[in-house]
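Ligand: magnesium ion. Inputs:
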Amino acid sequence: MLTASTDIQYLKGVGEKRAELLKKKGIDTVGALLRFYPRAYLDWRGVLPIAECPFDTEVTVKARIVSPVKTNYIRKGMTLYKFTAEDETGTVIVTLFNQKFLAQSLREGSEYLFRGKCGGNLLVREMSAPEIKEGSYNGIEPVYPAWEGISSKTLEKLIATALESGIEMPDVLPESIRERNSLCSFKTALKNIHFPSDPELLERSKRRLVFEELFVLQTGLAFLKKRRRGLAGCTVKRNLLPEFEKTLDFELTGAQKRVIGECLDDMSSGRPMNRLVQGDVGSGKTAVAAALCFIAAGNGFQSALMAPTEILAEQHFATVSKIAESCGIKCALLTGSQTKKQKSIIKESLKNGETDLVVGTHALLTEDVEFQRLGLVITDEQHRFGVEQRGILASKGNNPHTLVMSATPIPRTLGLIIYGDLDISVIDEYPRGRQVIDTYLVDSGYHRRIYAYIRKFLDEGRQGYIVCPLVEENETLDITSASEYYETLKDGEFAGYRIGLLHGKMPAKEKDKVMRAFAAGEIQLLIATTVIEVGIDVPNAVIMVIENAERFGLSQLHQLRGRIGRGKYKSVCILVSDARSGDTKKRLEVIKNCRDGFKIADEDLKLRGPGDFLGSRQHGLPDMKIADIFADRKVLHMAGVEAQRILTDDPSLSAPENAGLRGEISALYRKLNQN
Ligand code: ADP
Ligand code: MG
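Predicted complex:
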């Protein structure tokens, strides 16, 4: 008897080799196979007589092939196959491109279904590359995302086999929730998402599965939040803030003060703070973090500040230790590359409470890092960590306050949902005197002038970046790859200058070394892909050239541009693009004219759609199988209400009817941890 957890290898039709192919895509159980949903559907119903087909809309006709299939070699790599088909009402000429296998399988005299758009004229219709199916299928056919060795048809057959075996899968949604939200049963949804008998049922099934996915996500997040609740281990007095401000060589902005105030409200409330600080690049999040650490120390509590990379951790350490020293706060750095001995000394001082503030990387998460009285946990660039990771750090204290910081400008309403377990503060103001970055848009005809312009900056002692798009394998477009470009420039336009290369395929150590050399001014010009660290602060870098700018998302361009204009020098960003399409131009104009990360994010959303914008890397949530956090906002809300409700009724989710839900949530946590 099959169950959801049966190894995929034991499904009829799956051998050892196929099992391996399926497991490559994470389909290792029958349950996972059934939750692998079609990406599209072909509706073969509603066959029209050829003579009645409207032009330029998707139609299905049923026609008999009445001519041989003629082959035309157009040129190398391009073969056309042409034939004529008829029904009682008319004639259609069908053309196929390069589909040799399909063309050879067609038989003159047999009847087929053709689905596609009709062109031609009223007498003779034409169809280019239609979907073709033999016989008289009269349903909706699922189309699965195929990969090497596994076709859509194979998946369809396997899924049909699994469904027909009468497999029992528990319904994650209790009946009461289904009733309140008019959702169909899991069984119905599962059958119809794969093999819908009509579009309406398909819609219902989809809605049900979307609801389920968003419900599990939100229940999971709320569950995490609840687990952290309780009484705060430390309550602070806020009157230390003026003293902190005295240690700074600048004045806090109004927004920084407000956000610090919001955090201190939390930290003096008796409950643990659980807050997200969103602030555009350069808005000064580090100072907010430093203020809170300072105040925690003044109240006798330890703090931990975690950053995603060593270089960022070091940078933060440099900033906060300068402040800390001047007021007797003991501060330490903990990263993976330190020697065992160094690490053990620091760990000891955290355990016995000697060190007030530790700045570090993932190294802080290891089991043997213990604190005497950890009261505050801050995670920088939160989207680089999984949800559960900040939980691990927090668990090293007794209900410590937690703060996460992010420069990823997610529109506020959405942030509330994505970070459902967090309160949100926004730093919506830049420090005064911040350079306005001049942004220009030019075509590649300007390269000579651009190089000369860069050299002028370098000669004045400044530094700069040239950013190239990531080059993916089997890329056919003519774009500049970072390493080739580096080689060309090194011995050409920038011979005699100290130039460096940074890209994602380099080992982490190597990347770190290059970034460090750049920060220290040893490298004058850095040729890089987008791996330039978010958050890296090199005030001497004042010029950035972005090649093939049309290949980047707007938010990405904005984040990149945020690497310059961080000091007292005039900064310039040059976008190079030969793209001619109006849409692309419009996008690039947005970035040229606007420097508000939130506005840019909104534009990005409008122009590109949510799929691109919200890759899982952007927010630390797992990829959704079927739900779309934007498009399904309404369902998201309904599912959120139910998530709250179920946790009120059964806080530990231990009731038998919630067993399925609990299983799904554990699976989700496992995924969150892999992020
Ligand atoms: P981000 O929010 O991107 O992390 P940082 O915290 O790195 O920004 O701050 C960017 C730069 O601005 C740093 O060099 C920092 O010293 C400086 N800075 C922060 N706050 C202020 C302020 N209120 N006035 C002037 N400079 C500031
Ligand atoms: Mg930062």
